[in-house]
Design a protein that fits this description.
single chain, alpha+beta, Ubiquitin-like (UB roll), five-stranded mixed β-sheet, 5 helices, 2Fe-2S-bd_N, FAD dependent oxidoreductase domain-containing protein, 2Fe-2S_ferredoxin-like_sf
């Protein structure tokens, strides 16, 4: 995704080209791009998008950025003069048949899944939540959930871990006193659990916001939780602009919140 600076031009409706429809159902693992363009209430323009089966490789794909920009300027030529202030990427949870996984896990009691929506998660979130609520509470669902999918066989390392857990009489990865981490936030110690992000530690400690809006100085909380809204920026060890939702909390981290004013309406 590319984000421009504020512009005098506005795109009054989300515009996307037909390549997007083909990419949604494609099994091609290679890079695919399609134009998805819209203005935000703050006057910036969001430009996307790309798909590539990259596993968990989070490196920015400059080829994708160039192709997205090239296609967008064909749809809206005025974008050729736009200044891009931010570029970011993220993961799309993907299933080979392009259908989401919604429902109870067949192996772990009490574990429920709502994932695999690829790029349609924002549009399908409410329906997914209602469906999961119904199946969890025993209500007749408004639509039929996808069938439970058998999960991948356990790896050798997973089997060894399970044997070690059974021999120890418990689950060694269960959070306990030994799993605690303590970070220092604005001079105050905050305790969390190993494996949490800095944002997770803060949220669990009821620190739901650490930035404020430009007008009214109202608290501003994390918007996305996946590192694309940049509302969770903190300084860690003096290094600014760390996305707290993506940075694992490490015992002894010195965290300083960046209480910078933000526009009242952002995307």
């Amino acid at each position: 995704m590319l984000v421009t600076t504020r512009m005098p031009h506005r795109v009054f409706h989300k515009v996307y080209d037909a390549d997007y429809v083909g990419a949604v159902g494609s099994d091609d693992a290679a890079l695919q791009t399609s134009s998805v363009i819209e203005s935000t209430a703050g006057g910036t323009v969001l430009v996307g998008s790309s798909r590539r089966q990259a596993g968990f490789d989070a490196a920015l794909d400059l080829d994708a950025v160039r192709e997205i920009a090239r296609k967008a300027t064909r749809v809206f030529p005025f974008l050729a003069d736009a200044a891009v202030m931010r570029v970011y990427g993220g993961f799309r949870p993907f299933m080979p048949d392009h259908l989401p996984v919604i429902g109870a896990d067949p192996r772990v009691a009490g574990l429920w899944h709502a994932t695999g929506h690829e790029g349609a998660g924002v549009g399908l979130a409410l329906g997914t939540a209602e469906l999961l609520r119904d199946v969890m509470t025993g209500r007749p669902p408004h639509s039929t959930p996808s069938p439970s999918r058998p999960l991948a066989p356990r790896s050798a390392s997973e089997r060894r871990r399970d044997r070690a857990r059974d021999a120890a009489g418990g689950d060694p990865v269960r959070p306990g006193a030994a799993e605690a981490v303590t970070i220092v936030v604005d001079g105050e110690p905050v305790t969390g659990v190993r494996g949490q992000s800095i944002a997770g530690v803060l949220l669990a400690a009821d620190r739901t916001a650490w930035r404020t809006t430009a007008a009214g100085r109202r608290p501003r909380g994390i918007f996305c939780g996946i590192g694309v809204c940049f509302d969770c920026l903190v300084a860690v060890g003096g290094v600014r602009d760390i996305r707290a939702c993506q940075r694992p909390a490490t015992d002894g981290d010195l965290v300083t919140t960046q209480d910078e004013t933000l526009p009242e309406t952002t995307s």
